[in-house]
Amino acid sequence: MTQDSKFDLLYFPIKGRALTSQLLLSLAGADWKNSVPEWPKDKEKMPYGRLPVLIETEEDGSKFVLSESRAIEEYLAARFDLLPQGIKNLAVSSQYVNQIFDIVDAFVNIVSFKNKTSMVHGVDVDGLTKFPSECKDREQFFIAQHIVNMIKILNDSVKYFLQKHDQILANSQSGYYFGDSITYADLTLYSIYFGLKCENLAAEFDSPNYPHINKLIQLVASNSTVAAVINK
């Protein structure tokens, strides 16, 4: 690998599961672009039939192709020294990211269900736009109720996480998880916060009950490189 590598991040025209990788590449000052495949036409061309996919082209023209968002993120974080130093800190960082992904998984379940439902029934059906008590149609009632149930699972996961991690961050003088600068764990937390915020599901995150979580989010959001990616 050389510093002259170029990176092509293949993903849909949304931030979604590619956001953390976009932030890692941008903070590293890498030469990268985001490409949008023709979907589902290009699905079979992908290594595992899904996105994101990272294609790294080195100076000699050789290519390294990697799929799965977590694998891409971990590779880029290690590649560009955006992980904490020391084997124990690396293990703790991985622990934090795994715990953040409990929230990611619960959130993705909601988004995926809404997307699949909208493809079958349309985006304006009662089940997607109203509370269960407002749905007169039985099928729409069950759609709305299922969303309510999934949001409860998400909120329970978020609340438990925030209670634990606000205590962890209370011991940080800088406000970051490790040291005095952004690392992979910080970006992972910020990315899920951003995703939840876009779907109006970040109320618990924004609660004054978690001042140290809020401080970390503000630190990451105030970084000019991060802001440029978010506003792109």
UniProtKB/TrEMBL annotation:
GO MF annotation list: glutathione transferase activity
Keyword Protease: no
Every GST N-terminal domain range: 5-84
InterPro entries per the UniProt record, alphabetical: Glutathione-S-Trfase_C-like, Glutathione-S-Trfase_C_sf, Glutathione_S-Trfase, Glutathione_S-Trfase_N, GST_C, GST_superfamily, Thioredoxin-like_sf
Alphabetized Gene3D superfamilies for the sequence: 1.20.1050.10, Glutaredoxin (3.40.30.10)
Residues of the GST C-terminal domain: 86-232
GO terms of biological process kind: glutathione metabolic process
KW Transferase (keyword) present: yes
Keywords linked to the UniProt accession: Transferase
Protein name: Glutathione S-transferase 4
